[in-house]
Amino acid sequence: MFQLFQFLARQKVILLLLLLELVNVWSVFKYNSYQHTVYFNTTNQWAASVLATTREVKSYHQLRVVNETLAQENAKLRSELFRLKSQQQPESKLPYFVSEAMLNRYQAVAARVIDQSTEMSQNFLTIDKGRLDGIQPGMAVISSTGIVGKVMSCTDNLSLIVSVLHTSNSVSAKLKRSGELGYIKWPGYQSEVADLMDVSKYKKVVKGDTVVTSDYNAVFPPNIPIGIVAKVGVEKDDTFHDIKVMLFTQYATLKYVYVIKNRLASQQASLEASKPKIE
Amino acid sequence: MTVSFNYKWFFAVLLSIAIQVMFLRDIAIANVAFCFIYTWFLVKAPMKVNPLLFLLGAMAVGWLIDTFYNTHGIHAFACVLVAWLRPLFFRILTPANGYDERSSISLHEMKWLWFFSYVFLMLLSHHVLLFFLEASDWSLLGISLLKTFSSTLLGMAVFGILEFFNRPQ
User: Which of B146, B90, B152 is nearest to B124 (CA)?
Assistant: First the structure.
């Protein structure tokens, strides 16, 4: 203690200097409006840049959550979109009203792809939503860019999806411009390209036409984009066009997909099953 | 130091502060050269002054000037720091034969080279602190430096002239 006092006594000049200058600096920045402003502007700038950096780092780590919420929001918007599209009046002059059941026919659920393949000739995806989320085998799966596939089987929390990139998974399709019907079939190689079959060679098909799902599709809602016509060829002895379709969906980089619940699917299936069989 | 000298110095300080706040406050040559004659207190203080009292005195004078200039703390800051630096300047400028016991700061007592070097160091350090703290902005660096040097030169001229009135009879 005595040594402390000795030290203080030895350094009294410098200590007094520091004390007085502290008081002065404090009063400079406290009572002079200009210096006050400079100080607070400077600190605000530093604080702001620090906060901005922190927020950037934080938001980077929140991207996963943000993606999740965006995907869910998209799913909601998609449900709304299906409703609005089916509300559109057909071109016929007859009075036609869309029933509430038809309006609410499609509902989208967002899901994250947790496993997938594109290199095989039969490709599947696994998503993180299952029976508990209301997903049933047979439902359509689309992405933000186009069709993806069909739910094949579900567990409580996961579902397996047959990709469009599967040689036995064909999708009813039409050409958007002319309305010509056909179906999409993947040849078993090249994840970017599929074939559009069954389009008569007497119909006009132009390179660049958009291919969408047809209105008579039991799985997919109508007018979901599939791809564009990349190459049109006709074989002389064939009755159909040989059409190559460039698919919109980038299967290799899929992160989020939307499972489309079709609420009238069972009704439609039972109706169609009751068709009289032709003996 | 004689008692009479202390009184003389004390009244000179009061007079310099009065002149400063009454007349020189509003005067600037070409808006860059300011005369801070109150630094008389710092420049002409006895060499063997008690450092603690000197710091407190510098604080008081600076604070007083600040009150009239509406610049709380700026003059006081510069004064206190210069008061603390003064012994350092003495050491830097030590003449070849050292300081005399009776040495006082005057053009008559010291040689003119020592006197003006000393005044230059004192005023420069004071004005640097003063103008840079006043500007508080590195983008005003040029104008602050200009003010500092022009005010220092003006101050040296003024202190030189005042020394002619300080001749021993």
Answer: B152
Verdict on whether the full-model pTM lies above 0.80: no
A26 to A47, A194, B73: CA distances (angstroms): 20, 75, 8
Q: Which of residues 20-39 of A touch B (CB under 8 A)?
A: 20-21, 23-32, 34-35, 38-39
Pair of tokens at residue A159: 């579902």
Q: Which of A16, A27, A39 sits opposite B55 (nearest CB)?
A: A16
A171-250: CATH topology is Thrombin, subunit H (2.40.10)
Asked if A254 and A113 touch (Cβ cutoff 8 Å), the reply is yes
> Residue B136: which of A16, A31, A38 has the nearest Cβ?
A38
Tokens coding A164: 């469009």
Question: Which chain A residue is nearest to residue B58, measuring alpha carbons?
Answer: A20
Pair A214, A173: CB distance under 8 Å = yes
Strands A210-213 and A171-175: antiparallel
Would the ipTM clear 0.90, i.e. be above it?
no
Residue tagged 């620090």 (tokens) = A50
Tell me which residues of chain B, numbers 81 to 120, contact chain A at a CB-CB cutoff of 8 Å. 81, 84
Residues in chain A within 8 Å Cβ distance of B86 = none
d(CA B106, CA B9): 12
Partner-chain contact B73 A28, CB within 8 Å: yes
Contact A85/A123 with Cβ under 8 angstroms?
A: no
pLDDT by residue (tens digit) across B22-57? 888 777 888 888 888 899 888 888 888 888 888 999
One-letter amino acid identity for B113?
Answer: L
pLDDT at B2: 47
- Tell me the two tokens of residue A140: 């359509």
